[in-house]
Design a protein that fits this description.
By secondary structure, the chain is of the alpha/beta class. 44% of the residues lie in helices and 13% in strands. The chain is built from 13 helices and 15 strands. The strands form 4 sheets. Strands 3, 4, 5, 6, 7, 8, 11, 12 and 13 form a 9-stranded parallel beta sheet that branches.
Length: 456
């Protein structure tokens, strides 16, 4: 019996020894594994990855395959296999520092030139958003601050009239002038507080609307006398429906007035199709939707003789409005060929992208096409249709969510005598519109490679 007891004790001791040895070996394996080089990059664990207990790290997940039919500004699409990868403000190539002249607030004069040159050299485009209210302006400022980037806030003649109030008569564009001036002062009051550079711009001005820009130039001249800089940063004159000689002559005459004040001119060649703000170009001939390199060079020569403070909205198939992906046939190579043609005419002197291009009517375009256009010298892209929808969608979603609280001042699912003031207060639905628009614009900043530009 004693021998049996002794055998059991010895067996137990051996078992414990083996268990201890196994635990020691497992611990050594874990230590060695911890110092072994990883086969891929290590990234912080997210809720979308499999988390290792107490590890805090997980291998990077394989990149998702992007949808090849990306809606304009709706997500990232890879460049065409024949095109190099495009890297801008949000990419991996180190960006040159923002020029010291570019500071928070409204940017004019040389600072404006420096900012646009920085965009062209570093491969990003600045979103230019049409605004019709102070609420829309504030959403733009908030989105730009969130993305640490500059933004362009612009007014059309109709949008400026609405800003002033539709109750005002617009004889001789008086309300459009007053509204744009009021919007400009609103932006100037807040831009520095948001800590971002802002370009104050006015959008399409056809020949019949030239009195509107004349009034704004008078306002800038008065502001320049008081402060040494213009009220606005730039104005667009769109005479693309006129003969090219008349277009260039009038643009050159306005540039001569604007440049000494530090204002920049945007002009349009060819026609942007579709409809916007009462201007309908839906039925223009197809050839008018595509600018020719020779016309762009003629424009460059004519305006450079006056000042270098101009941009060109060349047509390369862009169309105002929103369309299903694939229905808009962009030809960004038109811009590339124009840059190459002009560089050749200039004997290769200076930049290989001498022209600053502007992109109108991007809705419905693949993001890969948009980013190719940026690589060819686009430094500004207009956004209107998409932000109109995002603003409305914010209100629509708010109403859907709180529908039963918005049918009367008193009475809701919580009780027949419960007040609804906190739901129908206009600030509630307007803030919902702003928040939705901020999110939409943040996506636009990313798609235009315009993020983390300010270096802070």
């Amino acid at each position: 019996f004693q021998t049996h007891i002794l055998f059991c004790v010895l067996a137990t001791i051996v078992c414990f020894a083996l268990i201890q040895m196994k635990l020691t070996i497992l611990a050594l394996v874990a230590v060695v594994s911890a110092f072994r080089p990883q086969s891929g990059p290590r990234v912080p664990v997210t809720t979308l990855q499999q988390q290792h207990a107490l590890g805090g790290w997980a291998p990077a997940a394989a990149a998702a395959t992007p949808n090849p039919q990306q809606h304009a500004l709706g997500g990232w699409a890879p460049p065409s296999p024949s095109q190099p990868a495009i890297v801008g403000g949000g990419g991996t190539t180190k960006m040159t520092p923002l020029p010291a002249s570019v500071k928070p607030g409204v940017v004019t004069g040389q600072a404006l030139v420096d900012l646009l040159d920085h965009a062209k050299e570093n491969g990003y485009a600045i979103p230019a958003v049409n605004c019709v209210s102070s609420s829309g302006i504030n959403a733009c400022l908030e989105a730009a601050r969130n993305k640490n980037a500059p933004i362009i806030i612009q007014f059309s003649a109709g949008g400026a009239q609405f800003y002033a109030g539709k109750g005002l008569e617009n004889l001789n564009c008086d309300a459009s002038i007053a509204g744009a001036v009021a919007g400009a002062h609103h932006v100037r009051s807040l831009a520095k507080r948001y800590g971002i550079p802002v370009i104050l711009h006015t959008d399409h001005c056809a020949k019949k609307l030239l009195p509107w820009v004349d009034g704004l130039l008078d306002a800038s001249a008065e502001y320049h006398r008081q402060t040494g800089e213009p009220l606005f940063s730039s104005h667009m004159i769109d005479l693309s429906e006129e003969p090219i000689e008349e277009n260039l002559d009038i643009c050159a005459s306005y540039l001569a007035k604007m440049a000494p004040m530090g204002l920049m001119l945007e002009m349009e060649l060819g026609i942007t199709g579709g409809e916007e703000d009462g201007v309908d170009n839906s039925d223009v001939p197809l050839e008018d939707l595509y600018s020719k390199p020779e016309e762009i060079y003629e424009t460059y020569q004519k305006l450079t003789a006056v000042s270098d403070r101009f941009t060109v909205a060349a047509a390369f198939g862009n169309v105002h409005g929103v369309y299903k992906p694939g229905n808009v046939k962009l030809e960004p190579d038109i811009l590339r060929r124009a840059q190459e043609y002009i560089s050749k005419q200039l004997g290769g002197a200076g930049s290989d992208k001498p022209v600053k291009f502007v992109f109108h009517g991007g809705s419905g375009s693949d993001v890969s096409d948009i980013q190719r256009a940026i690589s060819y010298g686009v430094i500004k892209m207009n956004i209107d249709t998409d932000t109109q929808w995002s603003y409305w969608e914010g209100i629509k979603n708010f109403e859907t969510k709180f529908h039963n609280y918005l049918q009367g001042q008193i009475g809701n699912p919580e009780g027949a005598d419960k007040p609804n003031k906190k739901y129908y207060d206009p600030r509630e639905c307007l803030r919902a519109a702003e928040t939705n628009t901020v999110a939409r614009l943040e996506q636009a900043f990313s798609d235009l490679l315009c993020e983390d530009i300010l270096g802070r």
